[in-house]
Amino acid sequence: MSPSSQLAIDARGISKQFGQLEAVSNLNLQVQQGHIYGFLGPNGCGKSTTIRMLTGLMTPTHGTITCLGLSIPQQAEQLRSRIGYMTQKFSLYDDLTVKENLRFIADIYGLSPNACKRKIDQLQSTYNLVPQTNQLAATLSGGQKQRLALACACINNPELLFLDEPTSAVDPQNRRDFWEQLFDLSEQGTSILVTTHYMDEAERCHQLAIMEQGHIRANGNPQALLAKMEVNVLEITANNLRQLKSQLSQLSQVRSAAQLGDRLRVLITKEINDPTQWLKQQCSTLDERNISHVNASLEDLFVTVTGKHPHNAGAPDDTHG
Ligand SMILES: Nc1ncnc2c1ncn2[C@@H]1O[C@H](COP(=O)(O)OP(=O)(O)OP(=O)(O)O)[C@@H](O)[C@H]1O
């Protein structure tokens, strides 16, 4: 098998122009079969537009897309039966019950009555929806709606799943359970592209892309991206954190200073060899007892790679991990 045939998604140089706005700009995206690939980025950075192009719902202005070996959008019809797509707003029919929603989708995919019954029983059991089988979708809790939406997206045993902010309406325990279910699917060979605003979710992905203003600013394995970060992360404990923050924020070597409870988390560029000494020089009230080195988090990475490009016209500044 050639390397490209092991890719569930291979998008090269794709762009999407809406009038004056380039919503997606020269984006390259390769997703390995069976991997969970996370798409992280602020509102409006182009994540949903990218998914729409990858699924064939929207034609790119430039670039080429291959999904599951099919050329998109030309072969989008063939792709449709092999993928699942869970949109931001759970696309459920409020006035149908759980079982009726599942049956409706199964009918669209043309499952035989026997296959339909088997699949619906299995999905209700996997996604813990048996007690709600006759309950109207409108009356389900956020977590139950999410599980039903995932069950609907899985009815055709998709080889590739697109999940657009699937956990935005659910509590931490439901998010955890949801991710366990994604890993079950991944282990069975399903490739998954998932958009999220949650750093803890991004950390769970095999691969991750951070997107901003239509560009991928960094991509790769989360741990590799953290290891390659261009900043040291330090935390300061002191009484005058607000004053320190405004003082440090003025310095070009400080990429970010943000308060977390009784600590100030400061990202200092690696050009500074000894950031503790440097901080002491900048703030005479600090001594070593106030300052500690801490491990970088994905949020630190996010802050470091975004916000450098105030205008949408900037060229991509990709960091490939
Ligand atoms: N059909 C369209 N016509 C014009 N502009 C559009 C269209 N679809 C999206 N856009 C614009 O493209 C940009 C990217 O939108 P997109 O929905 O892809 O962002 P996103 O990263 O998914 O955001 P969010 O996290 O808020 O869902 C936005 O500025 C949006 O207004």
From TrEMBL:
- ATP-binding as a keyword of this entry, yes or no, is yes
- Would you say which domain of life the source belongs to? Bacteria
Q: Which Pfam families match?
A: ABC_tran
Keywords of this protein's UniProt record, alphabetized? ATP-binding, Nucleotide-binding
Domain ABC transporter, chain residue ranges per copy:
9-238
- Enumerate the GO terms in the molecular function aspect: ATP binding
InterPro entries noted in UniProt: AAA+_ATPase, ABC_transporter-like_ATP-bd, P-loop_NTPase
Signal sequence span is none
Question: What is the designated name of this protein?
Answer: ABC transporter ATP-binding protein
